[in-house]
Amino acid sequence: MAPWWLLLTASALLVAWIALTQAGHQTWSMTKVGITSIPRRLGASAIVVVGIAGVVGVLIALLAMGAGFERTLKLTGSDDTAIVLQTGQKNETGSTISLDSIGAISQMRPVLRNARDEAIGSPEVVLSVSLPNRSTGLDASLALRGVGPHIWELWPGIKIREGRVFQPGLRELIAGKDASSRFSGLKVGSSVKLEGQSWAVVGAFDSGDAHNSEIWGDTQALSSAYHREGFANSLILRLKGPGALEMLRTNVESDPRLKVYVQTTRAYFGQQSESFSRMMSIVGSAIGAIMAVGAIFGAINATYMSIEGRTREISTLRALGFRRLPVIASVLLETMILAALGGTLGAFLAWAIFDGFTAVTMGQTGQIVFALDVSPTLVCDGIKWALAIGFVGGLIPAARAASQSIVKGLRAT
Amino acid sequence: MKFVPLVWAALMRRKARTMLTVLSVLIAFLLFGLLDSVRSTFDNAGQSSPGRSRILVTPKSGMGTKPLPFSLLTQITDIPGVMGIDYASYVVGTYQDPKNSIAVEAHPESFFQLYPEVSVKSEELSALRGTRTGVLAGEMLIHKFGWKVGDKIALLTAQPRKDGSTVWTFDLVGSFHFTDENMKINEVLLYGNYQYVEEARAQEAGTVTYYSVKVASPSDVDRVAALIDHATANSNHETKSQSENAWANAQLQQYGDLGFVVTSIMGAVFFTLLLLTGHTMLRAVHERIPEIAVLKTLGFRGKKIVALILFESMSIVLIGALIGLVTAMLAVTWVRSLEILPIPISSVGTDVWLRGISAAVVLGIVVGILPAVRGLRLRIVDALSGR
């Protein structure tokens, strides 16, 4: 996509040309006539606007899916917390870390300690469970995460919306906001059967990120229920401050017993969104491109029809001494103004309907709920697409309008 | 039929306009063909008619979340209505490059009786039975890696073997394929011998990932599935049993509501198209008002005028739709030949064609109706005098 400075320079040059040259003046007066006569050619103009609005709206909505998923996962992590995983494993579910290693890493200097001089860290187990979806009744999977006792110091932003926190060692669970709204049996006060045992749902939390799609319990209680004593899948730690990550990395690498690697939680969770975001950007651009070709044909067609209605007017102006260039420029300018209007309309509709719209897809261990994110960048991209369509769609009819015979044009009905 | 030249003349009156309109229709139906094929690929993936009378028994927490004990085999076999049973364990690893993730699905011999739709040459099947470390590769994999019978396939895994290594080496003894389009997703697998995997692995010995149970007819599925789940209730390996098709459907549903996305996109596209072709048709008829008046003067009845105009709008939309759908077919064939997608898109099928043509017919009528009514209401005197 063209960078903004290029577009700005082009527009500045255009304004200067219109203001300073005679051809520019002619263009401007023709464009004014063109724009004021749009109501008489409403149908043709509407085709350009609506056609381009459709392309831009669909494009933005699809890209907003990828962007929203990425945002939700990036929000899930932070830069001042680190996740420790087994070397060679990309996901928590595939990784195992022994309790000895967890103890050793927690004692390292770069790890922040709380007022009681305990390392702020959470050894976590991540399991996948399958529950019936509330609306479809079909089984869907979600992540069940065992978290350590320091979890609330690790993620201070998480709020308990209802009920209370689970008690360590007990078979109690709390459910994320999206998990409890989507799955039956996760209401506070109900109970879920895991491994043949009954677990009470004692609370609901809101983290505002991908954790909302999970259910949480105590790491130890879950490890023993699932016969996974002696290890966790990952260890999440709060770092002391800038530079602490590098230090932790060095410490971990210098200990030959540890077969683990460290990254920020933001990097880790962000990575989980990569393939989906990339897929959405490919799919969105491909569908957008096909629709854009259709919109270009539509715009050419509509502009032809507009010009046909103005044949006599254009020929008269040409007979009066208007040159070809102002004719081309004014037709093009009009189409591009309509295109910009369509682009803005499409972007607005996409934003009004889809910004914050929740969607679900499959994450590594379970479904993740995310909100579509129509960002200003996406809106700008959409409008750039609109201008490009308007330019290509207006060029051919504009050239034709300028090249038609004046005499024939004057005789047109 | 004798009016074809008349409609043709009307269409050729402004060639550029007709062509551009047809092109817009073409693009819309190209997109429709592509998106609807993708949707039907997802809707139908893993759905087969033998799958309707097979029950997939997985842990209640979902397939792959934990293994099921081998002891369930006799328990399930004893349940009345069970005609045959198959089970599988996986060896999952990467081949040559960390990006090439490959799974070996290790089955007992009963697999090929339970799944008659797997096409294997009989000599390759006996080679698999005769080679402990043997595997059959799906044809998609054979194409992707250019494997030949006799190749050794080494997978880097996270699953330790009894000999301490985590590298599993298999011998390629043949290939398999599915004739049913919907089952082609399985051609990315390797089929191996359960006995070998069971004996070689250091962890999860004596377990399987799932059981597959054959019942006499689809109507037995619910009853037998309930009996299996009842037998495992309150144990530490509770199961969830359902027909293979139901399971496949639930899996794909989890990735998102593709149907909604496709419907929304096509809604936007067809709305725009309606406006475009509708406006073009109105213009085309408007320009020909004197001609229509002449036709009426010559004795053409209102009905015939309506039919002519509808025929014209229908031609534009149907020609565009036909070419668009054919282009979609070619495009799908091309994408399939690239073999870059995890699931091969099914070709533009009869269902897609039917839906596409119905949409085109509806569109053609809607677009033609307004100009047709205009032609019908036309008063000869006014029209001829240019009022």
List its salient traits.
heterodimer, A: 413 residues, alpha+beta, ten-stranded mixed beta sheet, 14 helices, 14 strands, 54% helix, elongated, B: 387 residues, 2 domains, six-stranded mixed beta barrel, two-stranded antiparallel sheet
Plain-language structure description:
The complex is a heterodimer of chains A (413) and B (387). The longest helix of chain A has 36 residues. In chain A, the strands form 3 sheets. In chain A, strands 1, 3, 4, 5, 6, 7, 8, 9, 11 and 12 form a 10-stranded mixed β-sheet that branches. A two-stranded antiparallel sheet of chain A has the order 2-10. In chain A, strands 13-14 form a two-stranded antiparallel sheet. Chain A contains 14 helices and 14 strands. In chain A, 54% of the residues lie in helices and 19% in strands. The mean pLDDT of chain A is 91. With 387 residues, chain B is an alpha+beta fold. Chain B folds into 2 domains: 172 residues, no CATH class; 177 residues, no CATH class. Chain B is built from 14 helices and 12 strands. Chain B is elongated. The two termini of chain B are 32 Å apart. The model of chain B has no long low-confidence stretch (mean pLDDT 90). Chains A and B meet through α3, β3, β4, α10 and β13 of A and α2, α9 and α10 of B.
Put the structure in a nutshell:
The complex is a heterodimer of chains A (413) and B (387). With 413 residues, chain A is α+β, with helices and mostly antiparallel strands. Chain A has helices at 4-20, 22-36, 42-76, 99-106, 151-154, 177-182, 219-225, 244-254, 265-272, 274-309, 311-319, 324-354, 376-403, 406-411, and strands at 81-86, 97-98, 121-132, 139-147, 159-163, 172-176, 191-194, 197-206, 215-218, 231-232, 234-238, 260-264, 358-362, 367-371.
Query: Beta-strand percentage of chain A?
Result: 15-25%
Assign a percent range to the helix content of chain A.
40-55%
Strand order of the largest sheet of chain B: 3-4-9-6-8-7
Largest sheet of chain A: 10 strands, mixed
Q: What structural class do you assign from the helix and strand content of chain A? A: alpha+beta
Number of strands of chain B: 12
Mean pLDDT, all residues of chain B: 90
Amount of helix of chain B: 40-55%
Q: Write down how many β-strands of chain A occur, each being a DSSP E stretch of 2 or more residues.
A: 14
Order of helices and strands of chain B: HHEEHEEHEHEHEEEHEEHEHHHHHH
The ordered H/E elements of chain A are HHHEEHEEHEEHEEEHEEHEHHHHEEHH
Beta-strand percent range of chain B = 15-25%
Give the low-confidence spans of chain A: none
Number of helices of chain B: 14
Rg for CA atoms of chain B = 30 Å
* Largest sheet properties of chain B: 6 strands, mixed, barrel
Question: pLDDT below 50 for ≥5 consecutive residues: which ranges of chain B?
Answer: none
Would you tell me the structural class of the helices and strands of chain B?
A: alpha+beta
- CA(first)-CA(last) distance of chain B: 32 Å
**How many individual helices of chain A?**
14
Shape call of chain A:
elongated
